[in-house]
């Protein structure tokens, strides 16, 4: 997805003179063509993430469609005050495009983990949050979002689904139908969740759109007395307020499958962290089965 992010952003930059890209050393090699095309609209500020966001906001104030890019912990958590004030408080539009969450760079340790990024961004009112499931969806979502006069957080990752959908903001896709529960899967966890839920009598819904969320779509599938289980590639429970709001008119039960809310103190590959944290196929199935057991 990281390579696709650079390709799409470069294409937008080439064909739209109002696009500006701001980098903080990360992925500069993937933006070499963009730099050659428009060196005055592709700025690498170096390892200064607060400056990254501030410069991006400056471009936005001048009417540019800004795409700011670096790793998730350095785009959301480290410069959060700038995101909140420079973009959010001033009502500026732009795209904050990250890579690496939740722990794609797990061999680098906790400084490079960011399972809490989506929850943090959601505290900025009016922000859209998009978590594509593969490179093709990232391309589609970035093209849809980059010039829409909203602040958008676009989260790319190493993990990808096997199949791409014609996704759109604020829309759930019905992938499988069942009767015992409704499983809502976000972004790159769909393929492994479909494998993990084989033989379970559950509906599976898919979305890359955390915000806006398709409340009406969920209500239509979940029914009058639902058990809803979220499978989310960030801290477990992050999606819960949106699920509860969508079903506020009916008595509902909820369970969450996501990154456990604890510090990851081990070093390892993405696959090793997935296994340890219950985010691989076996772990997701175990957690789904537990959620389906009578309480």
Overview of the molecule:
This protein has two domains: 154 residues, Rossmann fold; 120 residues, Rossmann fold. It is 36% helix and 22% strand. The strands form two sheets. It has a seven-stranded mixed sheet with strand order 2-1-3-4-6-5-10, sandwiched between helices. A five-stranded mixed sheet has the order 7-9-8-11-12, with helices on both faces. The chain is globular and about 60 Å long. The mean pLDDT is 97.
CATH class of the largest domain: Alpha Beta
Determine the mean pLDDT: 97
Helix content, binned percent = 25-40%
Quaternary assembly: single chain
Helix and strand run:
HEHEHEHHEHEHEEEHEEHEHEHH
Q: What is the level-2 CATH architecture name of the largest domain?
A: 3-Layer(aba) Sandwich
The total domain count is 2
Uncertain residue segments? none
Strand tally: 12
State the main characteristics:
alpha/beta; single chain; Rossmann fold; 295 residues; 12 helices
Compact overview of the structure:
This protein is α/β, with parallel strands linked by helices.
Q: How would the blueprint of this fold be written?
A:
Blueprint: H1 2-15, E1 19-23, H2 32-37, E2 42-44, H3 49-61, E3 65-71, H4 72-77, H5 80-89, E4 94-99, H6 117-121, E5 128-130, H7 135-145, E6 151-155, E7 173-176, E8 181-186, H8 190-196, E9 202-207, E10 209-211, H9 215-222, E11 227-235, H10 240-246, E12 253-259, H11 270-277, H12 281-292
Parallel strand pairs: 1-2, 1-3, 3-4, 4-6, 5-6, 8-9, 8-11, 11-12
Antiparallel strand pairs: 5-10, 7-9
Helix pairs in contact: 1-7, 3-5, 8-12, 9-10
């Amino acid at each position: 997805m990281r390579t696709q992010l650079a390709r799409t952003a470069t294409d937008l930059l080439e064909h739209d003179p109002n696009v500006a890209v701001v980098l903080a050393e990360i992925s500069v090699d993937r933006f070499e063509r963009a730099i050659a095309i428009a060196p005055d609209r592709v700025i690498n500020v170096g390892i200064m993430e607060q400056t990254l966001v501030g410069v991006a906001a400056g471009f936005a104030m001048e009417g540019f469609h800004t795409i700011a890019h670096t790793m998730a912990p350095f785009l959301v958590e480290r410069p959060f005050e700038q995101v909140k004030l420079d973009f959010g408080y001033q009502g500026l539009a732009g795209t904050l495009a990250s890579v690496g969450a939740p722990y794609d760079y797990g061999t680098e340790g906790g400084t490079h983990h960011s399972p809490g990024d989506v929850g943090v961004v959601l505290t900025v009112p009016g922000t859209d949050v998009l978590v594509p499931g593969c490179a093709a969806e990232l391309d589609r979502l970035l093209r849809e979002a980059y010039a829409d006069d909203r602040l958008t957080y676009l989260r790319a990752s190493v993990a990808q689904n096997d199949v791409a959908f014609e996704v759109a903001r604020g829309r759930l896709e019905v992938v499988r139908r069942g009767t015992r529960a409704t499983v809502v899967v976000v972004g790159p966890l769909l393929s492994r969740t479909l494998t993990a839920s084989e033989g379970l009598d559950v509906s599976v819904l898919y979305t890359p759109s955390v915000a806006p969320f398709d409340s009406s779509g969920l209500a239509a599938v979940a029914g009058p007395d639902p058990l809803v289980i979220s499978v989310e590639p960030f801290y477990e429970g992050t999606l819960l307020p949106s699920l509860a709001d969508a079903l506020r008119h009916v008595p509902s039960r909820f369970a969450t499958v996501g990154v456990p809310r604890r510090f990851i103190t081990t070093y390892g590959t993405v696959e090793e962290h997935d296994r340890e944290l219950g985010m691989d196929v076996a772990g997701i199935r175990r957690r789904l089965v537990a959620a389906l057991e009578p309480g």
